[in-house]
Amino acid sequence: EFWPVPTVPTVPTVPTVTAVPPVIQSSSPISALARRLRAVPQPADTAEDQLRDQLRQLGVPADLTVDRVGTTAFAVIDELLAEVPVPPAAPRGAGETLALVGELTPTLRAAQAIAQQLRIPTSQILIAGLTGHPAAALYEASSGGPRLISSTRDAARLRAELRGADFASVVVVATDSVDPDPDDPWARELLDALRPTATWLMVDASVKAGDMRDAASRLGDVDALAVHGAQASSSPATVWELGAPIALLDGRPATRTAWAGLLYGAAAAGAAPATFDQPRRVVRG
Fold this sequence. Notes:
Number of helices: 9
Radius of gyration: 33 Å
Order of helices and strands: HHHEHEHEHEHEHEEEH
Strand order of the largest sheet: 3-2-4-1-5-6-7-8
């Protein structure tokens, strides 16, 4: 006799649920609205926006582009050039002193250019701030090199001597002998001791305007700027943001003609041929 085999209860199968990805179905009203929005062409920049952008690339401050009647970058440049003031002249009288403050190499080049323009001997070029500079040994070993100012006390002693000279003098105040310290009062103290007729700050055209402004504020009274690296900059007009008189552009007086060459060249180099229609112009000044 066989025992009955027990029946194993059947486990009900769980129906498989297919996950629906969280996407908007094509029939959704939201999807239809999205397709309509994508189909709407985005408005292109207006001619005025393009012009403002071109001027901004040249470094022209935004407040100087307001209410301009020109419709091309070159036309606005013409308007701006008409407003460029006559650049300050370097002191040239006997016993007068110009202090040029900045990194040694570009500042010394500017001093040599000024000496040529004023027709004064190179012996009237002096250098302060070489202590600790890599080039100090070269100048100290040179018998015919520029005279060096070693300290603020030395500058105070020289003040009377320079005032009694038969020519104007140019003093290069090198600021790159040591690591830059925003709180270092050395350059300002030396200028206070020297009491030059005028003080010009050397600025790099590729440096941000805010950094230039900070450097000028640390010196106190700055009469003008001397710009170097302007020819190599795509935005040479950035220095206009400082609102200070500009005396030199790459070693030559910052006349309207000098600015015209820089701005027209930078505009032509950074623009597509179809965007600019560069006219032939003669800029005087």
